[in-house]
Write a structure and sequence with these properties.
mainly beta; four-stranded antiparallel β-sheet; Jelly Rolls
Length: about 90
Amino acid sequence: MKKTTGNVSVVSFDSGEALTEKSSAFDTFIQVIDGTAQILIDGVSNSLEVGQSIIIPAHSRNSITANVRFKMISTVIKSGYEEVEV
């Protein structure tokens, strides 16, 4: 689902796959629905498993690496940032 106020997507990774380090202008809410992964946020490693979630704050450097096969729901919240310049 993609809208002007944000988007929701389901993403899956095979064991060892990763999203390279990036930054987003918006908060991102990650919900783990299968497997486990390491989520690095501004140099701090977070190990998440099924049923856990984390918020990646706007403008934070982050990467995600699957420890095993991994699925997540990623919700990007754009509303409220209309006046912020990066």
